[in-house]
Each structure stands twice: as C-alpha cells, then as structure tokens.
Design a protein that fits this description.
FAD/NAD(P)-binding domain, six-stranded mixed sheet, 29% helix, globular, Elongation Factor Tu (Ef-tu), domain 3
Length: 473
Amino acid sequence: MSVADKHGKQRLESSESMTSSTKPVHIIGGGLAGSEAAWQLAQAGVPVVLHEMRPVRGTEAHLTETLAELVCSNSFRSDDAANNAVGVIHEEMRRAGSLIMRAADTHKLPAGGALAVDRHGFSASVQKTLLAHPLVTLEREEVAGLPPEAWDSVIVATGPLTSAALAEAIAKLTGEDSLAFFDAIAPIVHHESIDQSIAWKQSRYDKVGPGNVEGSDGADYFNCPMDKPQYEAFVAALLAGDKTEFKQWEHNTPYFQGCQPIEVIASTGPQSLRFGPMKPVGLRDPRTGLRPWAVAQLRQDNALGTLWNIVGFQTKLKHAEQTRIFRTIPGLEKAEFARLGGLHRNTFLNSPRLLDGTLRLKAMPRLRFAGQITGCEGYVESAAVGLMTGRFAAAERLGRMQAPPPPTTAMGALLGHITGGADATTFQPMNINFGLFPPIEGSFKGKERKQAMAVRALRDFDEWLQPRPLAAE
C-alpha cells in the first residue's frame, strides 16, 4: 500500500525520507483507537509496532482476534454532520483520512439516520488495511505492566478492558485509583425468527439514512409493538428477572448513563422505557394505523441482513431469563438468539487530572493514552481520540509542531473535556455533544444554533489540518 492516502490524508512533508531512521512508536491495544492511531502514524511516515494481546489472552467481551472488533452495538450513531455532534465528528475524521471511517463507510448498513456497519466486514477491512501497510508491524502478545524503557514513545489504547497487570502498573505510577463502570451488550436475533405478521419495518419518522441504497424507502428497523398491558407486564418481568451476580470487587462500580442495562432504566420509573429505548414516537403500526404504547426496535447487524440486534436492550439478566422475557415481546415469541446480552467491567483514567493537552501521562510523558481508557465513550469518540493521539505522536517523532484541534471542533471539544474541561472530582465517560462546544455568537434558535456550530467546527477543523512548520530545535 502506498504511504499516500487516496482519501486526502494531510501527510507530513518529507516523511518518507525520514522513515528509515525513525524509531517506531509502540501502540498497546488493537481496538478502534489503537488501529486508528497506528494508521495515522504510518500515513505520516512513522513506523508502528502494534501490540494486541488477543488471542494469546482473551477478554470478557471479545469473540474474535480481529483488530477493531465491535463488541457492543454495530452502530456509529448519527451521521448527520449538519445537525448532530456525532455526525460532525464523523465528518472531521473523514477529512483527516480516518481508517475507521473509511471502513465504516465501506461496510455500512441501512439504519435510518444512523451509520451502522457489518461488524465482521468492518473489522476485517481495518485489519487487512493495517497489515498491508509497510510501516505497520503487528505483535500478538500481552504487555504486562509498564512498557520497557527502551520504548520512548508509547500509545496505550487498551480500552475499557485493560489487562489487570497493566492497569495495576498505571495505578501505581499515577497514585490514582482507576474508575470503573459496567458496559452491557445487547442481544442479537436471527432474522428468520422475527414474526413479520406482527413486527413491521419502518424508521422513526420514515427517515432515510446513510446506509440506504438509492431508491430505498428507509424502512430500516423492525418494530415490535406493545399495548399498555403488554408493556407493563414486560417491565414487571424485567424488574423481577434473575440477574447476573456481581463479584465482590464489582459492587461499587457505577454504570455509564449512556449504556445502562434495560432493567436498570426500568427501575427508575414505570414509564422510563417509553421515553427511552422503547419510545413509540414517529412510528405507526400498519395493522391499526395508530401509534403503539411502546415499541421494541431491531436494527440490522450484518450485511446479509440475517442478524438483528434489539436496540437499547443491553442487559445483565441471566441468559435463560433473557430468552424467556424477550420472547414475551410481540413479534419475538419464537426468537432465536445469535448472541444473548452480557456484562463486562470497563475501566478508565481520571484524565483531567492525569493527562496533558496532547494526551501524555503527566507522570511519564513517554506514555500517551487513547480511546475509552481516557474517559471518552462511544466507538467514534474512541477512534477520534486515537486519531488525535496518533497525530500528536507522529508530529513529536518527526520534530514538527501539532497543536490540539481548536475547541470549536468536535475533536477539540472532546479533547478539551477529557484533558481538563471536566471536573476531575466527578469525572465520568462522555459522548461527543454540542454541550461540550464553546458558545457561538449570534441569535440562533433551535436547530439553527447546532447548524451554525457544525459549520464553524468543520471550517476550523480544515484549518487545523493544514501542514505545520518544523519545531524549533
């Protein structure tokens, strides 16, 4: 593969001539963040050694040894770069030559206004592209403890499932206790087991998304309707269902609010699911012409359309209980599950206290951190932090200046939050949202404000992508 990126990557000048004498940057972790960081470094002409412990050592959530495996949802969420902060960060990543976004765009699936991907095709594409790059070396091994001192530039992108040995070494180095939260996985249903005489296909408000082919009607979700008695019985079953027991060391671990198990949401009030993952707004049951009391939605999970995940149904119910309770949903009475939900513990740093503005560990600047371990939340956020970390490390290795993205950009806003904008005493994982952006001048109302912020973000991001001069010696 050529060092030049056909998708317009802004490559650092003269990097090819420096490659033979440039020391490699070591990356620990081959998830989305680590893979994106490796790509950015290699495209800049910096050799990379990518260390991935799977399959030598597995995790509680991964099923394969493939780089950039998606262990939870297959959705990258909204792809609307004009009105949604997630869509803005998608577009920024594309403009920065992101490998993750290239693979996502190549393997996208119909999903209304969201960017959903075929998880297996996506991960296989990322791995194939990285391994074909002449500057990327993959080492299948666990880095137990702090990396060797000879590794003078390291990116730790071990994600929320950092091995115990490395997590303990980091905790000892920083003097900080690592925070943790639980992340639950939604179940996946085989397409042929969905009763289509009850469930119908429709996107909320009939919105057509980026994964649709030309001429598609945008009916991307299966919708399983519930009337009031069915909904109330379902909520009661969730609350009474037998759940996974916590280990002693897990009892005080908080959930991340954006990925709470469905039974935890249900416990906050009898109507909470109707205003959350089971909201019926924008949907009409074609059998009655009426809006249901509540709806369970299923989203396509692979390119063949044979697998569908139940949206927002992350759970810590035991497997037998999941099968019993989820089969009470109209349309899923005979559901066959390709994967049942699960639960795993995630850990992350107190980044506002521990990391500097370019994601270096203050206590040991040769270490940078990327991805969910920094306290960002979500696939694209993790990959975006990996993108920034890779660029920071590349510029440092090549003796160039690379300022952080402006805070008016999605990446800059996210970076600012996790490296100082958030209160270190109450720091919790965060998705990108317009609330992280600085205010914009002018009298904007409603969507106009978000649209103006999106335009500003992309304008300022394009400026940030321009080549920077050599650093002063």
